[in-house]
From TrEMBL:
Keyword annotations of the record: Metal-binding, Zinc, Zinc-finger
InterPro entries: Anti_sigma_zinc_sf, Znf_put
Name assigned to this protein: Anti-sigma factor
One Gene Ontology molecular-function label: zinc ion binding
Record Pfam families: zf-HC2 (PF13490)
Length: 80
């Protein structure tokens, strides 16, 4: 099973559909057992969706969200 750190390192590729079939399985498996990474992926997805829907979104909001994600990511890596 992936560590949280390995999982986080793959998350943007996962969301972009860039992983191999095998890696995607590994990520899904990790997400099944790790609520922290599940939450992280959900927030990443939200951020991506937000940026896609609102390319003109106020930079301030996107920054705040990205900052929160970065903090979350640090926490996950520390915990894992
Ligand atoms: Zn995890």
């Amino acid at each position: 099973m992936l560590t949280c750190k390995e999982q986080v390192a793959r998350s943007s590729d996962y969301l972009d559909g860039q992983l191999t079939f095998r890696e995607r399985l590994l990520v899904r498996h990790h997400l099944m057992f790790c609520p922290n990474c599940r939450r992280f992926i959900r927030q990443m997805r939200l951020l991506q969706a937000t940026l896609k829907i609102m390319p003109q979104a106020p930079v301030k909001d996107a920054d705040a969200l990205a900052e929160r994600l970065a903090a979350e990511r640090r926490q996950i890596i520390k915990g894992g």
